[in-house]
């Protein structure tokens, strides 16, 4: 490493003790058990640099493994500096806040020749932050909402930096770590195009009111002008006619509103302030897609988008099956969580083991009033034996002391319907059929206790069994006719993602919007703002 002058440690980089540094060093250097540890002697400047990077284990591992040889310093590191500067200059394209990466400061260091420990440290720490952000986001999901259980797995920083340092094309090496999923690219494109769709300065807002076909006046002219400024042809004139109603419906559909062709308070608010609303939604969606970075979304998977109330089977980036779903109520204790897992089997003719939370909150009070209530459920002891109700004094138990479970046998009225789809998880969430079919015609389908009810369960079962058995329809029908609980394994298992996108592209790239039913996006936006993201910062 070049002979560095003693550096001033910036407060936001921090410094750890020499003992902690050596702990990082020994773990990061990857020493073979049979090989003696190499003797490493540091100059005072090298020691200061090493102390600073030791706060980032990936950097400590990388530089420790190469005896502190620089990557970004001097003329030899110029191409790498230029590549990193170009990458962070595109931060706004990713919906990332450019200020996080200190581009102007790095540019000055680069122009000065970038020699010394300060220069190496500045570029190394920015590299670490860029890789962290672009491969996994800038917000930790579980700190946003208790219902988000998203396990974000980023690539090892030392491996990424080693690839970058050894590449003949460092710019390409950086591009390869960026998300490449087509849906992420579609969100990026929508964010870039949003500026072109903003109404021209001076475009009058739509006056507050409820404007419908047949109305006339200046407000209708303003409504036409606002829609036209957003690229929606609405004709002309002061009368609210059918072409205008069609343009309003088109806007409402795009904005995730009820497409009734009437300009009410919600539609007007979106028209007048939709640019900011849409930008926020796209920025949030990009962050959520970065959380998914460790998953191969080109592989066959089940994708359940909660705000859309839809489940899909996706293969090679295209939807091959789609169904409506019912999800958890908006009660904080009943909301469907977000997580990813592996679907391992489906169960035909399932028995319903009533969750204890439902047993003690809903059924125990009813049994205490009338032991013969909820007669469709069996009372079962811990060994699985059905206990006659006249042998139980329900009144003597509290919710905490009640020792029994409740279970519903397979049948037409079973709460799980005729099939459930299992991906074992700590929250006991799964997909299942339901006898309550009428709820699927509702637009806002938040009616369950947390599990996901499926509108087309048989067809979903056939699709999941496709490629697993010779005749999915016959296999399913045989299991159903048995009248008994039958478990059909999925081998290989199928990834399932319960996600929460209020703005997301269709297969053709068109962006659709959905309501923030659980308020999670509002909380995520607050967290993104704390991390430096603003709607008015060119998307970053």
Descriptive report:
The chain is α+β, with helices and mostly antiparallel strands and 540 residues long. It has 3 domains: 161 residues, no CATH class; 95 residues, Muramoyl-pentapeptide Carboxypeptidase, domain 1 (Orthogonal Bundle), CATH 1.10.101.10; 204 residues, Beta Barrel (L,D-transpeptidase catalytic domain-like), CATH 2.40.440. The protein has 16 helices and 14 strands. The protein has an 8-stranded mixed barrel. The chain has a 3-stranded antiparallel β-sheet with strand order 5-7-6, with no helix packed on it. It is globular. The N terminus is likely disordered.
Structure described in brief:
With 540 residues, the protein is α+β, with helices and mostly antiparallel strands.
Provide key terms for this protein.
single chain, 540 residues, alpha+beta, Muramoyl-pentapeptide Carboxypeptidase, domain 1, L,D-transpeptidase catalytic domain-like, 3 domains, 8-stranded mixed beta barrel, 3-stranded antiparallel β-sheet, 16 helices, 37% helix
The strand order across the widest sheet is: 1-2-3-11-9-8-4-12
Q: Taking Cα atoms only, what radius of gyration do you get, to the nearest Å?
A: 29 Å
Query: What is the beta-strand fraction?
Result: 5-15%
Please indicate the count of domains.
3
Principal-axes shape call: globular
CATH topology of the largest domain: L,D-transpeptidase catalytic domain-like
Number of DSSP strand runs: 14
Mean pLDDT over all positions: 86
State the CATH architecture of the largest domain: Beta Barrel
Distance between the termini: 36 Å
Q: What's the helical proportion of residues?
A: 25-40%
| Parts with pLDDT < 50 across at least 5 consecutive residues | 1-40
Largest sheet: 8 strands, mixed, barrel
Number of helices: 16
CATH class of the largest domain: Mainly Beta
Sequence of secondary-structure elements: HHHHHHHHHHHHEEEEEHEEEEEEHHEEEH
The CATH superfamily label of the largest domain reads L,D-transpeptidase catalytic domain-like
Class from secondary-structure proportions: alpha+beta
């Amino acid at each position: 490493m070049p002979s560095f002058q003693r550096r001033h440690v910036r407060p936001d980089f921090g410094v750890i003790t020499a003992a902690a540094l050596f702990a990082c060093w020994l773990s990061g250097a990857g020493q073979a058990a049979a090989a003696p540890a190499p003797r490493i002697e540091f100059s005072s400047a090298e020691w200061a640099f090493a102390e600073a990077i030791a706060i980032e284990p990936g950097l400590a591992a990388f530089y420790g493994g190469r005896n502190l040889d620089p990557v970004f310093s001097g003329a030899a590191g110029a191409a790498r500096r230029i590549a990193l500067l170009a990458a962070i200059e595109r931060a706004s394209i990713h919906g990332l806040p450019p200020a996080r990466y200190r581009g102007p400061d790095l540019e000055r260091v680069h122009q000065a020749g970038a020699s010394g420990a300060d220069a190496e440290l500045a570029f190394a720490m920015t590299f670490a932050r860029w890789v962290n952000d672009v491969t996994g986001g800038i917000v930790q999901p579980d700190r946003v909402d208790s219902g988000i259980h998203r396990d974000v797995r980023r690539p090892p920083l030392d491996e990424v930096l080693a690839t970058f340092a050894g590449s003949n094309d460092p710019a390409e090496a950086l591009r390869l770590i960026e998300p490449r999923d087509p849906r992420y690219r579609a969100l990026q494109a929508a964010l870039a195009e949003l500026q072109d769709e903003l109404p021209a300065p001076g475009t009058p807002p739509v006056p507050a009111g409820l404007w419908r076909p047949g109305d006339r006046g200046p407000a209708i002219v303003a409504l036409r002008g606002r829609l036209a400024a957003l690229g929606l042809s609405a004709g002309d004139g002061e009368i609210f006619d059918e072409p205008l109603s069609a343009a309003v419906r088109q806007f409402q559909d795009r904005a995730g509103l009820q497409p009734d062709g009437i300009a009410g308070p919600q539609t007007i608010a979106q028209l007048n302030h939709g640019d900011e609303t849409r930008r926020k939604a796209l920025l949030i969606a990009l962050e959520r897609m970065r959380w998914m970075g460790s998953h191969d979304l080109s592989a066959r998977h089940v994708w359940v988008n909660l705000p859309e109330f839809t489940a899909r089977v996706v293969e090679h980036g295209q939807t091959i099956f789609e169904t409506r779903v019912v999800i958890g109520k908006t009660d904080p204790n009943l909301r469907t969580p977000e997580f990813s897992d592996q679907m391992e089997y489906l169960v035909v003719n399932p028995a319903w083991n009533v969750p204890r939370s439902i047993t003690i909150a809903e059924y125990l009070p009813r049994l205490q009033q009338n032991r013969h209530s909820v007669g469709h459920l069996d009372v079962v002891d811990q060994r699985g034996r059905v206990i006659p109700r006249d042998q139980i004094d329900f009144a003597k138990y509290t919710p905490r002391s009640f020792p029994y479970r409740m279970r519903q046998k397979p049948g037409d009225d079973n709460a799980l319907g005729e099939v459930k789809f299992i991906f074992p998880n700590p929250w006991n969430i799964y997909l299942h059929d339901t006898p309550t079919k009428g709820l699927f015609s509702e637009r806002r389908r938040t009616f369950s206790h947390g599990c996901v009810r499926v509108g087309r369960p048989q067809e979903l079962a056939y699709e999941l069994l496709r490629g697993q058995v010779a005749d999915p329809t016959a296999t399913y029908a045989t299991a159903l006719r048995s009248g008994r609980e039958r478990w059909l394994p999925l081998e290989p298992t199928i990834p399932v993602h319960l996600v929460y996108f209020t703005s997301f592209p269709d297969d053709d790239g068109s962006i659709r919007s959905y309501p923030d039913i659980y308020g999670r996006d509002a909380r995520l936006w607050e967290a993104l703002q704390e991390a430096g993201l603003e709607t008015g910062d060119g998307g970053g």
